[in-house]
């Protein structure tokens, strides 16, 4: 550190970098050890960063990078959508169902990109900006499954009627994308999700993850 630099700002940026380098977040104790400062300092840094949505804390108290980081560069969010669009478009047309990319936003699942099929007579209306609790719907539950199995591929998640009566959902988490928690999925009007849909959703999630790396 030099006389012209801010120690507090430096620590805050180091916190963001540490969190960006982990897929599973860090606790206050872990951050304290890595920064070489006491827990009180870390609490203050996290509280300030959380006010600006640059970090978020899950129910277990682990800190993760927040979606506010995307807002620092206006082009970042559109670029995320742009990177995901080819895989989402292919998924929607192949399955004949509405495909979506969903990211974690606080305690919610937030749809940031949606593609509807062009050839079906009807499909579920699902819009970018739609949000719901992480523990409801396939998109959120797929993300939670990845949290619970951090060293494994949890595959896909199926739900029925949790967000809309008569609608089924299938989703798979994004894996190996540093600093991003999300899932790729489809939602359809059906009594049962066709067997091939799950594997196809996993494939699309892998394609999006590769595009975002």
Automatic annotation (TrEMBL):
Domain HTH iclR-type: 6-67
Protein name as catalogued: Transcriptional regulator
Span of domain IclR-ED: 68-213
PROSITE patterns, per the entry: HTH_ICLR, ICLR_ED
Keyword terms, alphabetized: DNA-binding, Transcription, Transcription regulation
Coiled coil (residue ranges): none
Domain of life: Bacteria
SUPFAM superfamilies to which the protein is assigned, alphabetical: GAF domain-like, Winged helix' DNA-binding domain
InterPro entries: ArsR-like_HTH, GAF-like_dom_sf, HTH_MetabolicPath_Reg, Tscrpt_reg_IclR_C, Tscrpt_reg_IclR_N, WH-like_DNA-bd_sf, WH_DNA-bd_sf
This protein's record includes keyword DNA-binding: yes
């Amino acid at each position: 550190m030099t006389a012209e630099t801010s120690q507090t700002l430096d620590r805050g940026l180091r916190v963001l970098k540490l969190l960006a380098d982990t897929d599973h977040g860090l606790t206050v104790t872990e951050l304290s050890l890595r920064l070489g400062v006491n827990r009180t300092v870390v609490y203050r840094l996290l509280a300030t960063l959380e006010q600006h949505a640059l970090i978020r804390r899950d129910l277990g108290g682990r800190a993760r990078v927040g979606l506010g980081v995307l807002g620092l560069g206006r082009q970042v969010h559109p670029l995320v959508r742009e990177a995901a669009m080819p895989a989402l478009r292919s998924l929607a047309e192949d399955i004949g169902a509405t495909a979506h990319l969903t990211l974690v936003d606080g305690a919610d699942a937030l749809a940031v990109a949606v593609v509807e099929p062009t050839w079906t007579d009807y499909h579920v209306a699902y819009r970018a900006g739609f949000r719901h609790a992480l523990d409801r719907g396939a998109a959120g539950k797929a993300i939670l499954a990845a949290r619970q199995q951090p060293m494994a591929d949890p595959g896909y998640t199926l739900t029925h009627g949790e967000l809309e009566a008569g609608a089924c959902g299938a989703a798979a988490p994004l894996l190996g994308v540093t600093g991003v928690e999300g899932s790729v999925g489809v939602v359809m009007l059906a009594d049962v999700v066709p067997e091939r849909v799950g594997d196809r959703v996993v494939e699309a999630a892998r394609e999006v993850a590769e595009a975002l790396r």
